[in-house]
């Protein structure tokens, strides 16, 4: 039997990023959390998501250091990017949790750089082999591919994108 | 069996709360002859319910001929209150000294009973008529934490105190784009702290940040390759506190953060 139930809390951090807490409303353990009561089913407790219990939970998520500047309860449907590709760019608009386009563009370029690192490793090996074997045409072809990767993070399509969906369609090479 | 000296020894019930305690007592009287001759029964009731925190004499031998004996066969004490519990203590008093009868000093919850049998055994019944188990040999928290006793038994709650038992665990499947409280023990929340990063909060604080965390992740694909499934799950540096910790997941090949299908973790330590 699993009675686990929770609600979502969106917490906006000082840098504008957002963290999403799944706040346990029904869960189990041997000790009651603050503000909770035991359910009839032994070991399970119920805790209403009041301002007091949520604030208390936030203080446990952030025992030291930066704390959220604001929080609000959200519905699952308010999270707009289900595939989390640009999770690092999520922000709370007050009506939805969705990626910030400017931050997403920077993330896209960074993703391409990481892909490039792996691609160049293989291309470098190909280039060395072709060079060693004196295959000039092949050397030039591999070099062209390498240059394409070098230019990829600065692909003008990234800056021109009007939505995160357009960004997701851009392939580096 | 309980034998009292007539005109000297009495039995009192001491109640600690204003419940509704009903007492029944069975006894017989004998004289000092050899062999003893059974005498008419003393007037033992019915006794009025005890509804205050007080001391009530339930067997008064003052009217019985001195030198006779009173043989108490049975005492039944029942808490008839709907909700109020009360401590109940049964004592024998001779006007100078008072002695609490063995096993007859308990907290009677609503609907519970305390019985002294003819054999002198005290029995504590719950509201369903079930006998309370012996708790004298139950392992305490300190004994569970020491983990060395061989003459104690473990209760379901006591299980949580042993150092070799997980104090908290969780499975957080990614659903609706955020990690869920899919299945947990002793966890109050899980926070999606960023890209491939979660922070569970433990319901019962650890006694320090020095506890052990085991964690892993379920890959989000079955198409294995160096760049999609060479995952490493780590405890984020310096995050463990008595209440929470943070896990990160990395594709080790290119250092790219990646989201799993689910997070799994457990924690052992002293609480």
Strand proportion of chain A: 15-25%
Q: What's the shape of chain A?
A: elongated
**Low-pLDDT segments, ≥5 res of chain B:** none
Q: What is the spatial order of strands in the main beta sheet of chain A?
A: 3-4-2-1-5
Fraction in helix of chain B:
under 10%
Kindly state the number of beta strands of chain A: 7
Distance between the ends of chain B: 47 Å
Mean pLDDT of chain A: 94
The major β-sheet of chain B equals: 6 strands, antiparallel
Protein structure class of chain B: mainly beta
Which assembly state applies to the chains in this document?
heterodimer
Ranges of chain A with pLDDT <50 over ≥5 residues? Answer: none
What is the gist of this entry?
By secondary structure, chain A is an alpha+beta fold.
Written account of the structure:
The complex is a heterodimer of chains A (173) and B (271). Chain A has five helices and seven strands. Chain A is α+β, with helices and mostly antiparallel strands and 173 residues long. In chain A, the strands form two sheets. Chain A has a five-stranded antiparallel beta sheet. A two-stranded antiparallel sheet of chain A has the order 6-7. The mean pLDDT of chain A is 94. In chain B, β14 (187-194) and β15 (197-202) form a beta hairpin. In chain B, strands 1, 3, 4, 6, 9 and 10 form a six-stranded antiparallel beta sheet that branches. In chain B, strands 11, 12, 13, 16 and 20 form a five-stranded antiparallel beta sheet that branches. In chain B, strands 14, 15, 17, 18 and 19 form a five-stranded antiparallel beta sheet that branches. Chain B is mainly β and 271 residues long. Chain A binds chain B through residues 2, 4-6, 8, 11, 17, 19-24, 27-31, 33, 47, 57, 60-61, 63-64, 76, 79, 81-84, 87-88, 111, 114-115, 117-118, and chain B through 157, 160, 168, 172, 174, 176-196, 199, 201, 203-204, 227, 241-244, 253-257, 259.
């Amino acid at each position: 039997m699993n009675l686990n139930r929770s609600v979502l809390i969106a917490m906006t951090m000082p840098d504008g990023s957002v963290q999403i807490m799944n706040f346990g409303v029904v869960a189990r353990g041997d000790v009651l959390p603050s503000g909770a009561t035991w359910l009839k089913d032994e070991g399970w407790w119920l805790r209403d998501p009041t301002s007091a219990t949520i604030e208390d939970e936030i203080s446990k998520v952030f025992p030291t250091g930066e704390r959220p500047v604001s929080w609000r309860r959200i519905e699952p449907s308010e999270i707009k990017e289900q595939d989390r590709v640009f999770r690092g760019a999520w922000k709370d608009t007050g009506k939805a949790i969705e990626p910030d386009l400017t931050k997403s563009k920077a993330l896209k370029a960074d993703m391409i750089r990481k892909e490039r690192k792996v691609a160049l490793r293989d291309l470098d090996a190909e280039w060395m082999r072709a060079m060693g074997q004196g295959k000039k045409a092949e050397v030039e072809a591999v070099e062209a591919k390498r240059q394409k990767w070098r230019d990829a993070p600065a692909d003008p399509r990234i800056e021109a994108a009007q939505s995160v969906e357009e960004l997701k369609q851009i392939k580096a090479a | 069996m309980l034998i009292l000296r007539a005109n000297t020894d009495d039995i009192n019930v001491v109640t600690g709360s204003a419940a509704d305690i009903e007492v029944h007592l069975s006894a017989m009287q004998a004289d000092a002859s050899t062999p003893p001759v059974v005498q008419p029964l003393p007037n033992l009731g019915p006794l009025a319910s005890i509804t205050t925190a007080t001391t009530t004499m339930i067997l008064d031998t003052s009217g019985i001929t001195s030198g006779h004996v009173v043989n108490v066969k049975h005492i039944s004490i029942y808490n008839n209150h709907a909700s109020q519990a009360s401590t109940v203590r049964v004592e024998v008093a001779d006007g100078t000294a008072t002695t609490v009868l063995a096993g007859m000093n308990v907290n009677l919850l609503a609907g519970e009973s305390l019985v002294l049998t003819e054999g002198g055994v005290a029995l504590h019944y719950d509201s369903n008529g079930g006998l309370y188990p012996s708790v004298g040999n139950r392992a305490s928290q300190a004994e569970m934490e020491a983990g060395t006793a061989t003459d104690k038994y473990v209760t379901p709650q006591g299980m949580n105190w042993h150092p070799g038992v997980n104090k908290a665990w969780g499975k957080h499947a990614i659903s609706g784009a955020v990690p869920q409280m899919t299945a947990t023990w002793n966890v109050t929340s899980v926070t999606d702290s960023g890209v491939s990063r979660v922070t569970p909060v433990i319901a019962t604080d650890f006694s320090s940040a020095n506890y052990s965390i085991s964690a892993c992740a379920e890959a989000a694909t079955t198409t294995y390759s160096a760049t999609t499934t060479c995952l490493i799950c780590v405890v984020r540096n310096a995050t463990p506190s008595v209440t929470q910790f943070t896990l990160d997941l990395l594709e080790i090949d290119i250092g790219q953060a990646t989201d799993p299908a689910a997070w799994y973790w457990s924690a052992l330590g002293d609480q």
